[in-house]
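Reopening this ticket.

The earlier resolution said the output was attached, but the attachment link was broken on my side. Pasting everything inline this time so it's all in one place.
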Amino acid sequence: MGTVGLSFGSPTGGQGFNVATTVSQIMSNYQAIETPWKNQLTSLQAQDTALSTIGTDLSSLSTAFSALTNFQGALASKEGSSSDPSILAITSAGTSAVAGSHTISVTKLATTSSWSTSSTRIAATDTLAGSFSVQVGSGAAQTFQLNSSNNTLSSLAAAINNAGIGVSANVITDSTGSFLSLVSGTSGSAGNLTLSGSLTDQTASGTPAVNFTQAQAGADAQLTVDGVSLTSGSNTVTNAIPGVTFQLLQANPSTQVQMEITNNTSAVTGTVQSFVNAYNTVVKDVNAQEGNDSSGKPEPLFGSSTIALLQEKLGAAINTTTSGSGINGFGALGITINNDGTLSLNTDTLNSALNQNYQGVVNFFQGASSGGMNFSNVLSGLSSSSSTGVIHVTLKSNAAQESALNASITNENSIIATQTAKITAELNSANQTLQAIPTLLSEVSVMYSAITGYNQYHP
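Inline output:
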């Protein structure tokens, strides 16, 4: 501990000394005790930041890789094509679809039931009277009794739409007048509309009848799929081929459309590339900790055993080989390791593997003892989200040290505060005494003169 000197000039000069400065000098010795603690705390916090970044990127890597190990992920993705898109178009091929070929012919398109009052054109503002009922398929009939709230074409259309019976009502106007159109919300025979009742135009001369006539009957689509006759209430067919949705666009019974359902290799290639990119991000994070920062100081995790363990585990996981699937390692998928530990992807090699042995690729990524399961387990053992993960354990250890250091600093600050208050009070008292010396000396001189009759200041 250093020393502190008091400078107050002549002891009898009454100058005193600067208490605040003196206290600060004294307490700096106490505060110096905290310096190594604070330096260590700063170092641990810098490590936490680096570890958290690596942990976040490991999580992203895990997410990218899970798209390959998930049974409903990229490897289950399918795509479809139609030999005649003017007759039949593929809407989607889901993960439950099975790769293969299908022959389809479209005999008849589905139609949607519709009715209208187009045979009697009236003015849009005319007042109507009467009642009518609408039934959708085999459902219950809905009766509309006209009154002041629904006795025009527009208010009647609104009442029908608001009733929520599965019928869309619209007022259509052309150069000859207006009419009401009703269209079923369900295509095919199940949505056929049945109307009964009558309306009259109360505004027009002679109160003519306003009749509904059927514009189109609802009928099911008819098609054959691989020689099997099927019907569909909609031109969007979802139940003919498992996992596949396709659209009927034109009836042409004499034309056989070839539908091909294939594995979506482009989606798999993109997913593998995303995995490689995510892996490289982690490796670059780790490699960055092996040198110095821009100011020449070692990175927070320089020399850390955690960094060495991450490099070892990730490298070993990529070099894992399996047997029995035909694809025995990442190398067979065109994934190779560069000198710095990052990966490169040869898409030609990957596409060749996908085209020649797609199931082998699936087996490599999925299954209880697959390469994919092994890699997933390695990621789990490194992550910050797993209680036993390397990142999590290291962060937890750092947190314990940081807690102890903060406790020591808090305790030392309490001691410093107590000592500061005590020393300040003592030095203030001493300073007051020093500043009072000239006055005391003067008083002593006066007393001396009074006692001796000698005035030391008398000429």
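Reporter confirms the inline version is readable. The two ends are 53 Å apart (CA to CA). The chain has a mean pLDDT of 90.
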